Amino acid sequence: MAEVTEEAFRQEAQAFLDANATPRSEEKFVWGEGSDRVALFDEKAREAEQRQLEEAKAWRAARWDAGLGWIFGPPELGGRGLPAAYDRLYSALESHYEIPPQGFFGIGLGMVAPTILAHGTEDVKKKYLPAMYRGDIVGCQLFSEPGAGSDLASLQTRAVRDGDEWLITGQKVWTSGAQYSDIGEVICRTDPDQPKHRGLTGFVVDMHAPGVEVRPLRQMTGGASFNEVFFTDVRVPDDHRLGDVNQGWTVALTTLMNERAAIGAGGAGGSGMVSTTRLVELMHHYGSSSDAVLRQELMELHIKLTVARLTNQRALDKIKAGQAPGPELTTAKLALTQNMTAAAEFVAHVLGPRLTADTGEWGTYSWNQFVLGTPGMRIAGGSDEVLRNIISERVLGLPKDPGIDSKTPFRDLKVGTQS
Ligand SMILES: Cc1cc2nc3c(=O)[nH]c(=O)nc-3n(C[C@H](O)[C@H](O)[C@H](O)COP(=O)(O)OP(=O)(O)OC[C@H]3O[C@@H](n4cnc5c(N)ncnc54)[C@H](O)[C@@H]3O)c2cc1C
Asked: Considering the entire predicted model, what is its pTM?
């Protein structure tokens, strides 16, 4: 393949975007104008969600057909085979255009697809990866269970071999986007006689297969963007296995590393809904600009957002320069959720009761969705406490948890309700 220079690629991407999307007008925040929505979770009624999903898929299909669907992917799977930097360049250009919301693909492309690429069989890669990057199918992550979240290796969903197939039975929970997903990455217990991390295996499961049941879970924000998923003797072909039998922990780690990097890199900066401009306007509007305590709170938040943005930038610059990022990415998700929580507290202090009673006034009750969404952000993709454990052990070199149950066969552990 002829080499594509970065400049030639930029022109090509720019031409595609100009021909297919409208440039985003420079948003200047004006109090009382436009939408006052500041929700962290994209929750909609099912019909509206379905409509947006179709629009999102159409955009991905247009990108794919123009050769921009999987910029860094291997050519034998339909990818463009260009460096990851070209993909970041495309994303930067695309961010200046109005395009349908792409959040539907976050888990599938950000976490499941890289795992399939690393651990899937050739047939599974060919069957699913081009379709995922073209937006034809959507993927979800089926890890957590009622008795296994932070301690993921305690999961109990079983996969039992039956000839060339496996039979999966069990329950997953908090599965974001399962309601519109076509495939899922599921981690199952395949050998309860081994210690808990060693008897696990990963699979790609068809979410439309007989025996898969998706039940929505209502959140305190009022929406239902994640689900319980029940498996009853769901048949999965052996070639849909990810990695070797009983090596599922390595597969899960691939996904989790991608998850933390994706969440952390997503918005630790000072832009978007945690923008200090918006918060300053909030203070002006409610006459609290001269409140010494609130001013101090806002400045602390501004400093933390700036530090987080620069730390992220440093990590990205290192990657760009071909160096391995240091501890920056480990702290990114923690910084993001801490800053969101601080922003939510600040907003609550400024708005007071306006946050909880819907008077119809612009820019007040709408913050309720943000405030109620922050605890979920602190849990998803590794809770704050678990991330602190990781930082203390792997970055600061403090003593590890004794890990008393890492050698005992899973069958002999007293985990949840296992029989
Ligand atoms: C918005 C959202 C979306 C999600 N989407 C998905 C998804 O798509 N797929 C999926 O599989 N899962 C998903 N999850 C689930 C998520 O991964 C788990 O909620 C998370 O791993 C925590 O597990 P848990 O809820 O069982 O809590 P637990 O692990 O039971 O934790 C309870 C509390 O104990 C603390 N704790 C636990 N262990 C330790 C420890 N060793 N040291 C100190 N403190 C500890 C935790 O920090 C927490 O405060 C989602 C969760 C949320 C909130």
From this structure: 0.92
